[in-house]
């Protein structure tokens, strides 16, 4: 017993300082505090802006697991062009009634190869297209022959249309992170209403952002105010007097000196919902490594709300695995891979996982040979999240690509390339400021240029493991850098911590 006691004491003496060192090594951001009850306290800047809550993204805001849908149709591999057989199955299931669960049913594509000369289209609610594995031994859909195209296109139709009357937001300044604001009259609104929080573009905003002063080259277009009106989709959670509370936060400050903001109810007639794509390998035929006359996008979503893409792999496409267009909202893209793109390595190619929509979640992804692997486009309205994903042999940078994306979280991204949020100047036809309220959290990079725009908000580099660089134009305001090269950031994932703070389990 005496020997055991001496041994235990020795271990304690040896390990005690080590345990103390590990505990002291952990650190937290000055912008927020994780409390013992899992809630989060956010610390505002001098204008009241905070890091927003990014957790209400993805399929049904992350409050529902991806469903298992009953198989109602099975398709076997066929010789020759299989596109007709798959499209016929989709059309057949599209004619079925929608069940109480919101689905018509799932179509199972059995293991094997499906050569497709054209494209496959889903235009109807409640359909799941599933395979039996995203490897060569599973279900393989092949974009055969020539023709730059999306192999699988899931799309409703329509657009945002205004209903009711617009009302002005009366606060002089609504900071990023806010979930409520005052309006001139809230009489026409109630909890559950779907609204647009509208932020107009103005000439003085463009001027103060210096986007009417881009150094010109052939094809450069200075920014125009009427091209930068932003429409954020939100749902009202409460109305108290003339105070409106919303589900997802403001991700770009609404400032009266730049036109403030307005609110109106909206419809989106023709937008579909509850469509899923699962467990499929997508490949494109190609003539050579720089061939561009072949399959361009594996899976393309637009005009759809509450859908998902899970466990898919793409190989040899010119643009990417998944592209979500501006009408795609609350989509989860999960456990998917984009490998070995075939194209010239230059602009408008190799956007492995591309997002132009709102409230979308990209999680557990992997890429090789991409350019802009996890990327948003012009005027992309957040919040959106890229989480726990890896890129290798990348040829450009991750991040907002051009022309003012607002409200994106890049959380635990691991890349051998760069993550950049910057003024891209006259690249393209005048990319200019790529974005605002872009949060780079606990990411591993080769290098990063994180700048904040002259006005309208900040960008954040918190716990970045990698070199800090000046970027394209080094004379721009620095972003909020904190904890460069420091490990053990707490919370390790902002997205997961924000989920837990509202009582939602973390994704598997």
The gist of it:
The chain is 10% helix and 41% strand. It has 4 helices and 37 strands. The longest helix is centred in the N-terminal third of the chain and has 24 residues, at 2-25.
Description:
- Among the domains are: 61-157 and 271-371, Pectate Lyase C-like (3 Solenoid), CATH 2.160.20.10; 161-267, Elongation Factor Tu (Ef-tu), domain 3 (Beta Barrel).
- 10% of the residues lie in helices and 41% in strands.
- It is globular.
- It has 508 residues and is mainly β.
- This is Pectate lyase superfamily protein domain-containing protein.
- It comes from Pedobacter heparinus (strain ATCC 13125 / DSM 2366 / CIP 104194 / JCM 7457 / NBRC 12017 / NCIMB 9290 / NRRL B-14731 / HIM 762-3).
Major pleated sheet: 15 strands, parallel
What's the helical proportion of residues?
under 10%
How would you state the average pLDDT, rounded?
95
Structural class of the secondary elements?
mainly beta
| Overall morphology | globular
Strand percent estimate: 35-45%
Distance between the termini: 46 Å
**How much is the radius of gyration in Å?**
24 Å
H/I helix tally: 4
Would you identify the CATH H-level superfamily of one domain?
A: Single-stranded right-handed beta-helix, Pectin lyase-like
**What is the CATH topology of one domain?**
Pectate Lyase C-like
CATH architecture identity of one domain: 3 Solenoid
The overall strand count is: 37
CATH top level label of one domain: Mainly Beta
Low-confidence regions: 1-13, 15-23
Protein name: Pectate lyase superfamily protein domain-containing protein
InterPro entries: Pectin_lyase_fold/virulence
Organism: Pedobacter heparinus (strain ATCC 13125 / DSM 2366 / CIP 104194 / JCM 7457 / NBRC 12017 / NCIMB 9290 / NRRL B-14731 / HIM 762-3)
